[in-house]
């Protein structure tokens, strides 16, 4: 006979997954296929994570759509047709819904269920999970699938609440259409998001003012439609596509050019850059010479090449110089990919406001006041980025053994074992966690590795009757050392971008303070490492 549950009684499940985005959807599929009692708690009112929230105009994949989609279901691969090489947000959200509906996963998801705290009970070997609503869940295992970019950050300019028109972070772009026709729109921020929005809005608004603090390198996305025949061809090649992604450091179909930077003449290298500049997606970065990440001369050369491309595309030479980064080389921060971004500045209705010359003083009722002048605006868009990778964890009060707060342990920099486990926090498995490759590579490729590894670890533990799983302090330290070593090899180790945990809007995430947030040893090396651990019976993990 079913036991009725009163509102104040905790809900009990063997596994709780937090987040119904790309990772949470696959994770619940794996667990329910195994007959494990699991539910997903999702803070939003529907599934999709990143692709549910980021509804700003221009939001789309930077990864080829068919390398971004899940690889684990032949049926999905057969039935779903991508329409664009780099699919846009509405289609991406439809895709995730298609997958969830196909496998009837929604019934395992609880929406409007934002987790506020997680407390480990070392005697009961259980987590107590509290929601903002006051509801309580208890589970043996917790799988936070929070996404690396789920905590948007806003600046703290005085007067932000005074502005009388609509203003929002790109992550919170309103669901109902925002009318921008004829409007004076200000966009603050020129990261990957800002560059997508600006390229898309330039010819759709009355006036566009771009408030740029630092310029970013950017290269063409080179998007195109995928015809029916091409989709058939892609479908026939799926095994090959995923195999080649698995061999590439970034998890893309593009593989580095191993000929060696210095084995070619400058002229030959330029011919190669000319070719790559017309290729789709990240080819210019990840199918380039690997030396551009490690060797100053190689990076200087590609940076000078891209700078000249910008000069060719922007009519006003003074403006072109303002759009060329001088403080970091090409690829030393997350590379935004653009469509008509540089051409936007040739339009009469688009103006760059260079904040390095005149910083923002305050937001007013009617616009933005810099130290030089007041800019009258109807709409303000904050494309100001995220508290990347660890932000989602900091939002939840996660207390492990003896009430230890995860946020305190990670205050300087996160510490994990292979990005999945954290010593002192038993039975918590982070999919796409800090120090995994999820933040540094084609996301779904990496999370499939993560979800599969977590699932296999669970199967292993359950089959042995284990109820407590924890990484040892030594194993965790070894992995942190490995993450630091991989990081030290990269020239971008001091870059002011979210790869190194920099965010001027988050206390303690300032310039010069490196947070080791992601593993930069490459997806193949990471996958080999975790496979080796599983094959060896999970050394470094205490199973009791
Ligand atoms: P990013 O790449 O972190 O970019 C944020 C941008 O916002 C960047 O240009 C910042 O300038 C700018 N910013 C941040 N705070 C301010 C303030 N206070 N004033 C002016 N400008 C500011 O975030 P995105 O959303 O573009 O991209 C995040 C990821 O989403 C991306 O990598 C993809 O994976 C998808 P700064 O450079 O710090 O001077």
Number of separate strands: 19
**Radius of gyration from the CA trace?**
24 Å
- Could you tell me how far the N terminus lies from the C terminus, measured between alpha carbons in angstroms? 33 Å
Structural class: alpha/beta
Q: Give the CATH H-level superfamily of the domain at 11-151 and 388-543.
A: FAD/NAD(P)-binding domain
Count of DSSP H/I helices: 18
Assigned CATH class of the domain at 11-151 and 388-543 = Alpha Beta
Biggest beta-sheet profile: 7 strands, mixed
Order of adjacent strands in the largest pleated sheet: 3-2-1-6-5-4-17
Ligands bound, unique: ligand NA7
Enter the CATH topology name of the domain at 11-151 and 388-543: FAD/NAD(P)-binding domain
Helix fraction bin? 25-40%
Question: Looking at the structure, what is the overall shape?
Answer: globular
Low-confidence stretches: 1-5
State which percent range the strand residues make up: 15-25%
Any idea what the CATH architecture of the domain at 11-151 and 388-543 is?
3-Layer(bba) Sandwich
- Arithmetic mean pLDDT: 96
Task: Quickly list its features.
single chain, 544 residues, alpha/beta, FAD/NAD(P)-binding domain, 7-stranded mixed β-sheet, 5-stranded parallel β-sheet, 18 helices, globular, disordered N terminus, binds ligand NA7
Give the secondary structure arrangement, pairings included:
Layout: E1 11-18, H1 22-33, E2 38-41, H2 50-53, H3 65-68, H4 74-79, H5 89-102, E3 109-110, E4 115-121, E5 126-131, E6 136-144, E7 167-169, E8 184-188, H6 192-201, E9 207-212, E10 219-220, H7 228-236, H8 238-247, H9 266-277, H10 283-286, H11 296-313, H12 317-322, E11 337-338, H13 341-344, E12 350-354, E13 360-363, E14 367-370, E15 374-376, E16 379-382, H14 391-395, E17 397-399, H15 406-409, H16 443-463, E18 469-471, H17 473-489, H18 523-535, E19 541-543
Parallel strand pairs: 1-2, 1-6, 2-3, 4-17, 7-16, 8-9, 8-16, 9-12, 10-11
Antiparallel strand pairs: 4-5, 5-6, 13-14, 14-15, 18-19
The structure holds ligand NA7.
């Amino acid at each position: 006979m079913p036991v009725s549950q009163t509102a104040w009684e905790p809900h009990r499940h063997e596994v709780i997954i937090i987040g119904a985005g790309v990772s949470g959807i696959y994770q619940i599929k794996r667990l329910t296929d195994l007959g494990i009692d699991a539910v997903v708690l999702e803070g939003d009112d529907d599934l999709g994570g990143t692709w549910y929230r980021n509804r700003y105009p221009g939001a789309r994949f930077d990864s080829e759509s068919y390398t971004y989609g899940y690889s684990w279901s032949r049926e999905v691969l057969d039935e779903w047709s991508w329409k664009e090489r780099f699919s846009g947000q509405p289609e991406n959200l439809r895709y995730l819904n298609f997958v969830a509906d196909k496998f009837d996963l929604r019934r395992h998801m609880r929406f409007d269920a934002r987790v506020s705290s997680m407390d480990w009970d070392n005697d009961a070997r259980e987590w107590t999970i509290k929601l903002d609503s006051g509801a309580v869940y208890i589970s043996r295992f917790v799988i936070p699938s929070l996404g690396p970019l789920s905590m948007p950050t806003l600046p703290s300019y005085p007067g932000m609440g005074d502005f009388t028109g609509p203003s929002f972070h790109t992550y919170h772009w309103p669901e109902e259409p925002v009318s921008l026709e004829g409007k004076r729109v200000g966009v603050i921020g020129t990261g990957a998001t800002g560059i997508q929005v600006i390229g898309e809005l330039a010819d759709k608004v009355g006036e566009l003012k771009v408030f740029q603090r630092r310029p970013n390198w950017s290269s063409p996305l080179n998007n195109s439609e995928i015809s029916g025949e091409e989709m058939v061809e892609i479908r026939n090649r799926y095994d090959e596509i995923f195999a080649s992604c698995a061999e590439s450091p970034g998890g893309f179909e593009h593989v580095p050019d191993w000929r060696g930077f210095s084995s070619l003449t400058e002229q030959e290298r330029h011919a190669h850059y000319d070719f790559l500049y017309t290729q789709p997606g990240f080819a210019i970065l990840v199918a380039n010479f690997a030396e551009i990440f490690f060797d100053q001369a190689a990076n200087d050369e590609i940076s000078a090449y891209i700078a000249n491309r910008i000069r060719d595309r922007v009519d006003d030479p003074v403006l072109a110089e303002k759009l060329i980064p001088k403080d970091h080389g090409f690829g030393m921060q997350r590379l935004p990919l653009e469509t008509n971004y540089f051409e936007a500045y040739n339009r009469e209705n688009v103006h760059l406001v260079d904040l390095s010359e005149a910083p923002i003083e305050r937001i007013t009722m009617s616009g933005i006041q810099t130290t030089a002048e007041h800019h009258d605006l109807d709409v303000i868009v904050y494309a100001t980025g995220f508290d990347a990778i660890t932000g989602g964890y900091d939002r939840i009060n996660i207390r492990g053994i003896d009430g230890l707060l995860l946020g305190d342990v990670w205050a300087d920099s996160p510490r994990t074992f292979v990005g999945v486990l954290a010593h002192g926090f038993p039975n918590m498995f982070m999919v796409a966690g800090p120090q995994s490759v999820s933040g540094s590579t084609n996301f779904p490729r990496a999370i499939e590795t993560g979800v599969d590894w977590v699932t296999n670890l669970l199967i292993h533990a359950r089959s042995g009757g284990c109820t407590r799983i924890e990484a040892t302090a030594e194993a965790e330290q070894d992995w942190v050392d490995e993450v630091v070593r991989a990081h030290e090899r990269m020239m971008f180790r001091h870059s002011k971008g979210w790869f190194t945990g920099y965010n001027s809007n988050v206390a303690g995430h300032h310039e010069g303070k490196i947070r080791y947030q992601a593993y930069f040893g490459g997806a193949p090396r990471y996958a080999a490492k975790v496979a080796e651990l599983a094959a060896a019976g999970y050394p470094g993990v205490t199973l009791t």
